[in-house]
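In practice, a research group might receive sequence data for several interacting partners and want a quick structural hypothesis before committing to experiments. The following worked case mirrors that situation: the sequences arrive first, and a predicted assembly follows.
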Amino acid sequence: MPKRKISLLGATGSIGQQTLDLIRKSPNTYSLEACAAAGNNLDAFIQIVEEFQPKLVSTASASKADDLYKSLSLSVKNKIQIIHGEASLKEVAAFPLSDTVILGLVGALGLESALTALNCGKRTIFANKEPLVMAGNLIREALNNNKEAVLIPADSEHVAVHQCLQGQNFDKVNNLYLTASGGPFWNEKNLDFNSIKPAQALNHPTWKMGHKITIDSATLMNKGLEVIEAYSLFEIPYDKIQVLIHPQSLVHSMVEFIDGHVLAQLGPNDMRLVLQYALDYPSRQNNLTDKFLNWKEINKLEFFEPDLEKFKCLKLAYWAGKHAQTYTACLVAADEIAVELFLQEKIKFSQIPDLIEEVLNMHSAQEPKTLEIIQKTDQWAREQAMNLYKTKYI
Ligand SMILES: NC(=O)c1ccc[n+]([C@@H]2O[C@H](COP(=O)([O-])OP(=O)(O)OC[C@H]3O[C@@H](n4cnc5c(N)ncnc54)[C@H](OP(=O)(O)O)[C@@H]3O)[C@@H](O)[C@H]2O)c1
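A structural hypothesis for the assembly, expressed as C-alpha cells:
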C-alpha cells in the first residue's frame, strides 16, 4: 500500500484525534501533511502541530492563527505555514503534497472542502456526513468527473455496508439495515423529553464523539442523516434502507440480498478501526488498535425497531430524503441551529424536531443543481430557524 499523505480537517476533534493516533502508531504508512481546526482547543492544536509538524496549518480566524503562531517553538514556526478563514479549509483539502483528505469537520461547514478534495482527485474520507446529505448529487458528480478521486465513507455503518457490498451487484440488494446504538433515551419508558438536560443527552452509552453528533444520536437525527448518507453513497431506494436499534453496537450494519442471504459486518466499537479501513482500502494491514472481538464474552446481539413517533427526527430525515431537492440541505441547517440552541439550554430537547419540522414546512424546495443553490438554502434555513426561535420559542 502506498503511504497515505494526509490532509486532516478537524484535527482537534474526536475524528481528528483518532486519526492522529493511527498516524502515531504507523508512521511508515501514514503522514500528516496539512491540518485544520478552528483553534478553540489551542493547547491540543499546539501539541498536534509540534508533534507532527504538518507543512500547512489552517485556523478559523486571524487571531487564532496569531495565538497558535506565538505558542509554537522557533524550530516548528520556521517549518510551517499558517493560514486562516473558511477559504483556507479548501487550501488544506487541495494541498498538493497530500493524496488523502480526511473530512472531520462538523456540519455544513465541510461541504466546500469535500468538493475541493474530490475535484483535486484525492482519496476523500467522509467522516463528516452532512456534505453527503446536503449535496449527494454534487458529490457524485465531482467523483464521476475526477477519475483519480476515491470516495470512502468513515461512519461505522457505511463502512460496514461498503464491506458487505464488495463484489456484489447493488441491484440484488433487498434491504440495507443500518444499526443504531439508540443513544441514551431509546429505551426510557417514563422519561419526560421536556426535562432532558444537555449533560444527559451528551452521555452516550457506547461512542465518545463531538457534541453535535452526540446530540444527534440522542434524537436519532444522526441515524436519519445516515439514512440519507446511505442513499447518497449506494443509491439504494429509501424504502429498502431500514434502521434497527442494536444496543450492543457490535453489528455495524447488514445487507440483505434478494435470495434471502444477509451479510453483516461486526467489529469492536472503536472509530479507529473504521478510519483505518478507510485509509487502507482496498488493502488491509494489522489492526493498529489491538482491539478484537472476544466471542466468548458476547452473549447477546439484540435488535429493536425504533419508535418514529417518539424520535421524530428520524421520521423527518426519511421525509426530507424521500422528498429530496433542497429539503436535505434545509434539514441539515435547521438541525445544526436546533442542536446549538438546545446545547445553550435555549430550547428543550423535545423542541429540536419541532423547530426542524417548522423550517421544513416553510421551505420552497428546488433542484439542488449548484453549490450556490445549496448554500442559499443553508443560509435561509438557518435564518428561519433563528427567527422561529426568537418569535415562538423564547
Ligand atoms: N466522532 C465520531 O466518532 C464520529 C463518528 C462518525 C461520524 N462522525 C462525523 O465526523 C464529523 C466530526 O465529528 P467529531 O465528533 O470529530 O466532531 P468534534 O469533536 O466536534 O470536532 C470538530 C472539529 O472541527 C473543527 N472546527 C469546527 N469549526 C471549525 C472552523 N470554523 N474551522 C476549522 N475547523 C473547525 C474543530 O476545531 P476546534 O477543536 O478548534 O473547535 C474540531 O477540530 C461530524 O460530521 C460527525 O457526524 C464522527
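Before designing any experiment, note the following. The mean pLDDT is 97. The two ends are 55 Å apart (CA to CA).
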